[in-house]
Amino acid sequence: MKKKMLAILLVAMMLATVVGCAGADEGAQTVTEPEDLKMATLLPSSPTDGGWGQTGANAINTAKEYFNCEAVIVEAGTADLMKTEATALAEEGFHIIIGHGGQYAAPFAEISGDYPNTYFFTAGGDIVTENQMPVEFMVEELTYIMGAMAAHLSETGVVGLTVGGEYPSYTKTSRGFELGAKATDPDIEVLFAVTQDASDMNEAYEIAMAQIDAGADIIWTNANQSSLGSIQAAKERGVKIFGMVQDQKAEAPDLVIASVVQDFNNFAIAIGERYLAGSLSGETIKIRAGEDQGLYWAWNDSVKDTLPADVVALYDELLPKIQSGEIYVPSETEGWN
Amino acid sequence: MDALQITNFLASSVRMAAPLLLASLGLVISERAGLINIGVEGIMLMSAFAAYAGSKIAGGYWYGLMVAMLVSIVIISIFAITTIKYKAQQVIIGAALNMFCAGLSSFLYRLLFYNTGRFDDGIAAASFPRVAIPGLSQIPILGPTLFNHNVLVYFSYIMVIVLWVVMNKTSVGLKIIAAGEHPKAADSLGINVLKVRYLATIFSGIMMGMAGAYLSIAQASSFGEDMTAGRGFIAMAVVILGKWSPIGSMLGALFFGAATALQLLFQITGIEIPRNIIMMIPYIATVVAVLAVSQNKVGAPRALGVPYEKS
Q1: Is residue A5 part of a domain?
Q2: Which of A17, A33, B100, B218 is deepest in the core (most CB within 10 A)?
């Protein structure tokens, strides 16, 4: 009898907890004061990876400092986590939730309609609703230039390209490199590889070594923290390399030619300000190359000074043509042949 | 494939096998003594961090290696005490160590190096350079394959010979095998089974520490969270593939290293096979090989995973 009573009591307590928790958070309430803003970013990788994850972490921390608001970083690298963590944040009343990668688009789309007062942003992806928007960094505008420079500089006619995953926001923007190289030299050989794991530096090292052994004298890796493995291979073999996401010239001061830098800080502040002003609406936010935009080309001056003038001039020559459409470089959301 | 491609493929295979070999040699000794440690992945990861931190802060790769080995000894001691003295479930402790080390390495890395990428001298730490063996490294194909690597690679292959001799030709090896096959019988003959298991486990931890250090300061020159990428578990498969022998482990490690190197080679040569299929090669090869080996008597120590109660 006692055991039965205890069991009933425990079940009742559990039910009371469930009922009590349900409806405790009803989603975000609109705010107009910066300090009341709640922002969150979901990262697919570590916030200290020196690459993609870190740019997302830096952005939310910048926004936190700027607005003096609540801002959190959540690591959510799998589809189930993306959805559950985003749901939890929306339930807790977060006004802005950023998914740092195009892979967040589909999981967010499953829940964004349930939380109309929360704005969901994805760094990449192509799903647009009233309160879900992709941010498209037009990285291919600069990777095309990178490829063109690589083709000009390569003495062997072989260059290496490695990416850290095979999904559109990774491969399409990275293959702008290949387009630029082949537009410059149709006979150039681009050795393309994909790492199994964007955190596996050792694999990236071996891929880079294999590319260099196959004749590549210029390489580029867009594979998050595993890019450091490629840089190590480049250092061992004295091969020039381009950097990505962060300015990587400090890793190989004599070998990094330039880096395509993605700075999400301004973006995070901009969307916070637009939220507070009530001017957010469903749209694709395109970030084009330009220093004030958060996507820019960072020369390594010590290597730049050794390059032929016509190679250096490619940046100023090609960028306007790409941005005007005179040179067509498909973006992540456009068709890819 | 020309001679250069073959040479580069073989050299890459040897390099990729090295961390697997170091870890699996350690596992061979501890498992032969009767302890199964699935925490190898976590210990390697923690050691990789320790090696990077030691090298970055102290400014030298030898310091990094020493720190990695000290850290691995501390962690493996936890495993040894909990499983030998307190007879805790070895698999559970190993799994707990994996989670503990994954969390601790990430936590400490962020604590010490959060501004990664903002060092004036970059993220990279000092790492073991390649040491070409004079004369031998010039031999066509064989030279670059075997004699142009860093010292940890050389050490791993030397240890195969050392451990083969120890296990097959010395009383130490006999005691280790006895502790893992028939601990009661060994005890009755005056062998201190618990002491043998402690020492075997500590040794395995040192080897795992070196394996972790290889990843961060003998190849990548950096640390990344989760950088072991499952290599610890692969090392466990290598032990089974090699039938708990040093030479078998070497062959198993080389097999997996070669399969991985082949996958990379296929990718960059643009072979007309879907990339996702190519990337499965190492894992399919390992599963097939383990299954093939398992058709015969596998050879696992009889008392593997069984705590010993001294009567």
Answers
A1: no
A2: B218
Q: Which residues of B touch A50 (CB under 8 A)?
A: 116-117, 123, 222
- Tell me the chain A residues in contact with residue B270 when contact means C-beta distances shorter than 8 Å: 191-192
* A127 plus A274 within the same structural domain: yes
Q: Looking at residue A34, which CATH number applies to its domain?
A: 3.40.50.2300
| Cα-based distances in Å from A163 to A236, B108, B260, B267 | 20, 28, 17, 12
Band (B117; pLDDT cuts 50, 70, 90): very low
Are residues A269 and A125 both part of a single domain? yes
pLDDT band at B258 (very low <50, low <70, confident <90, very high): very high
Q: How far apart are CA A123 and CA A258, in angstroms?
A: 23
Nearest CA to A27 among A121, A129, A80, A97?
Answer: A97
Indicate whether B250 pLDDT > 50: yes
**For residue A271, what are the domain limits?**
26-137+265-287
* Contact residues, chain A, for B267 at CB < 8 Å: 192-194, 207
Tell me what ipTM this predicted complex has.
Answer: 0.86
Query: 3-class SS at A137?
Result: strand
Choose the closest CB to B261 out of A200, A206, A251.
A206
Helix (H) or strand (E) holding A96: strand A96-99
